[in-house]
Amino acid sequence: MNYQTIHIQSLGVTVEYASFRPEGVGEWHVMLHVEPRGQSFVEQMQRIYAAEDQLTQMPNFLGAQYVLKRYFLSDSTNQQPLMRQEPGVAISVIQQQPLDGSKIAAWLYLVSDMDIRTEQGTLVASHNGYRHLWRMGLTCNQGDSAQQTDTVLKEYEQMLSHFGATLADNCIRTWFFVRDVDTQYAGMVRARRENFVEQGLTEKTHYIASTGIGGGPGDTKALIQLGTYALTGFQPEQQQYLYAKTHLNPTYEYGVTFERGTRLTYGDRSHIFISGTASINNRGEVVHVGDICQQTRRMWENVEALLQEGGMDYSDVMHLVVYLRDTGDYEVVSQMFRERFPQIPTVITLAPVCRPTWLIEMECIAVKAEPNPQYREF
C-alpha cells in the first residue's frame, strides 16, 4: 500500500490517497479536503472539481478512471442542485457535514484497466469476467421510512435482475442514509428485515455488509437514501463473512440485519468491506457510554478484530469514513485519528449513529495482495 498526501496550493485542496498498484488492475481511494477560506459553497465546490480534474493527469494516477464519487455536504437540499452532472460515474451526494469547517468533502474511488460504462442507471466496471455494479442515490419521497425503504430495495432488486443478479447472491455492500435517524431508523430496519426474508436472507443464511447512519438526502421528502455495490462472476466460496465473535455479537440478536464485514478473495488480491462499526461488545451492549475517547478506542479495537479475522490489519486499509454525533467531539477525535492513522485517507463528518448513546462510528475498505490461483484475478 502506498499512502501520499498532496497539497494543491493554488486550489487550497488537500489530496489524501492510498494506491494499490500490483500487476493488473490498479486501485485508488482518495479523500479531498478544501480550505474553507470564508467562501460560498459554489466556490469551494469548484475548487474540489478542479482538483478532481487534475488528479487523473498526475503521474501517480495515470490510467485511472473514476468509478465512485461520494460528496459530503453541509446542506444537501440547497447545494445538490448546484452540482455538475457527471455521466459515467457513480455519484453519491449526502448531507453529512464535514467537520473541518468546510461545506464539502469528497471520497473518490478510481481503478485502471477496466471497461467502465453505465447501464440501467448503474456504473458497471468490468474486467476478467467480473462485473462490479455501483448504484447510488436511490430515494423515494412517498410514505414513511419503512415504505420508502421497501420501495428503494425493490427498485434495486429489479435493477439487479437486469444483470442476472440477486440481492442474496450478489450484493456485497449497502449504505442506508436516514434522515433524523433517531426517529426514522426503526422503520428502515423493519422494512429491510421484511424485504430480506422475501429475498431469502435470514439469520440462518447471511446478510450484507452495511452502514445505517444519519444523513440527509437532497429531497426534503426523502427519508432514506440507498447506495450499493454488487458483484457478478464470482464463486460463492470467494466470499467470507467476518464476525469477530470475541468482540461483537451477531446483529440479528438486537433486531438488525447486516454483516459486520465481508471479505472477497480474487486471484491476485483480497478486499475487506467493514460495515459501520461502533463501541459495542459481544453481548450487543454499548460500551463506554458518554466517553468519546474510550468509545473511539473500542471502535478501533472492534474494527481491528474484524480485519484480523480476514487476514489483514490497519496497514491494508485504503480509507476511513468517521461519523460523529456531536460536533463538539471533533477536535479530540480528529487528533486521535491523526496520531493513530496519520497516513490513511480519512474524512470525519456529522452523522448521528443509530443508537443515541453511540457517539462515533466508522467504516473502511481494505485490500491486500495475495496469490489465490484457484480464482481469476481482480
Description:
By secondary structure, this protein is an alpha+beta fold. The chain has 3 domains: 1-113, 60s Ribosomal Protein L30, Chain: A (2-Layer Sandwich), CATH 3.30.1330; 115-233, 60s Ribosomal Protein L30, Chain: A (2-Layer Sandwich), CATH 3.30.1330.40; 239-378, RutC-like (60s Ribosomal Protein L30, Chain: A), CATH 3.30.1330.40. It is built from 7 helices and 18 strands. The chain has helices at residues 41-55, 76-79, 145-162, 167-170, 181-198, 292-309, 330-340, and strands at residues 2-8, 13-20, 27-34, 64-73, 90-95, 104-112, 115-119, 122-127, 130-139, 171-178, 209-214, 224-232, 239-242, 261-265, 269-277, 317-324, 346-350, 360-369. It has a 6-stranded mixed β-sheet with strand order 1-2-3-6-4-5. The protein has a 6-stranded mixed β-sheet with strand order 7-8-9-12-10-11. The chain has a 6-stranded mixed β-sheet with strand order 13-14-15-18-16-17, covered by helices on one side. A hairpin with a 3-residue loop joins strand 14 (261-265) and strand 15. Helix 3 crosses helix 5. The longest helix is centred in the middle third of the chain and has 18 residues, at 145-162. The model has no long low-confidence stretch (mean pLDDT 97).
